[in-house]
Amino acid sequence: MGVTRHGSSTLPADPRRAWAKHAPPPPPPAAATAPVEEASDTLHIDAFASSWAELATALADADVPLEVGDTGRLRRLAKLDADLVATLARWIRHPGAPA
């Protein structure tokens, strides 16, 4: 590799090599994402899809914000029997309400 001397600095003779020393920095690491659930997990079964929708609607009605990973937890809760899901949804919608 040839070197050209300019004043007090030394530069590579080939400008392409000089450019390689000033390459753009690598991109930042990807942001953290929620674990991906298997698509066949819950929502392909109508009863589970209905339970998931009921729980998601109850949380939205109660202004409960979902966090990363909560969708997977809702899928697991949706596998519970329909009476239990209805009770959970009622508790979410009406916390502290008399029985």
Give a quick precis of the structure.
This protein has four helices and two strands. The protein is mainly alpha-helical.
Mean pLDDT comes to 74
> Which sequence of strands runs across the widest sheet?
1-2
Report the major sheet.
2 strands, antiparallel
Distance between the termini: 84 Å
Number of helices: 4
Provide the succession of SSEs.
EEHHHH
According to DSSP, the number of beta strands is 2
Radius of gyration: 29 Å
What percentage of residues falls in helices of 4 or more residues? 40-55%
Shape: elongated
Q: Could you tell me the strand content as a percent range? A: 5-15%
Report the structural category.
mainly alpha
Low-confidence stretches: none
Region (Disordered): 1-36
Biased composition (Polar residues): 1-11
Describe the fold and architecture.
By secondary structure, the protein is mainly alpha-helical. Helices cover 42% and strands 8% of the residues. It is built from four helices and two strands. The chain has helices at residues 15-20, 46-61, 70-77, 82-93; strands spanning 3-6, 9-12. A two-stranded antiparallel ribbon has the order 1-2. Helix 2 runs parallel beside helix 4. The protein starts with a strand and ends in a 6-residue tail after the last helix. The mean pLDDT is 74. Residues 1-11 have a biased composition (Polar residues). Residues 1-36 are annotated as: Disordered.
